[in-house]
Amino acid sequence: ANFNRLLQNVSDLSPTLREWMLLEGYGRVLARPALSIDLRELGIIAILTVKGLPRQLHSHLRGALRVGVSPGQLEDAIHLCAEYTTEERILSALAVLRNIN
User: In the chain, what are the domains?
Assistant: First the structure.
């Protein structure tokens, strides 16, 4: 739902920008073979946790669950970020995860 809303908002701004975003941002980047999709999502989740971006984190946590990452693995990934961010951001990320499960 959030992704579709994002696509619509970008399309309202510029249909060309929407196509570029899909091709470059999602097509080429997420399709790179070096990392599996589950590892890629875990990396993104770590970055979003450290930066304190709960809305984007919510979407990527859901995506990670859809590709087979377990809730326990997600919780562990969030806890691993504690050395690199504030306790407040860790607790916020864990709250986002709890609201999904």
Answer: 1-32 (no CATH), 36-101 (1.20.1290.10)
pTM: predicted TM-score of the whole model, two decimal places: 0.75
Chain segment 6-37, per-residue pLDDT in tens? 788 888 988 888 888 877 766 666 667 778 88
Q: What is the pLDDT of residues 53-81, one digit of tens each?
A: 999 999 999 999 999 999 999 999 999 99
DSSP-derived 3-state class of residue 32: coil
Structure tokens at 47: 């970055």
pLDDT at 4: 79
Nearest to 41 by CA among 24, 28, 29: 29
> What whole-number distance in Å separates Cα of residue 68 and Cα of residue 47?
19
Torsion of CA 39, 41, 47, 52, to 10 degrees: -150
For residue 69, the 8-state DSSP code is -
Nearest CA to 64 among 76, 52, 81?
Answer: 76
